[in-house]
Design goal:
Layout: H1 2-42, H2 47-54, H3 58-66, H4 73-83, H5 87-90
Helix pairs in contact: 1-3, 2-3, 2-4
Length: about 100
Amino acid sequence: MSLIVCRLILDKCYNNVKSYLSDIMKDIKKQLGDKIRAVRLKRAMSQEDLAFEANLHRTYISDVERGSRNISIENIEKIAKALKVKPKNLLDFDE
């Protein structure tokens, strides 16, 4: 019986940690998207302009800016080059 109770407690803890990590990842994707949008607007570029310069699709840029897309390191680099910034600048959320 105690084994079942321990298992239930562990499952509950695991689900809480999994949910917490999921929230953190959503927050990071949103922060990155907000940063890309801010830099893009500062450069007076449309999403379409950025997509063309980065050789990505406009809807992909839109998804990234909304924080609803997991973005690869390669695409962060493409977007950074298109925005004429270093990739690390897009990942610095304190600015």
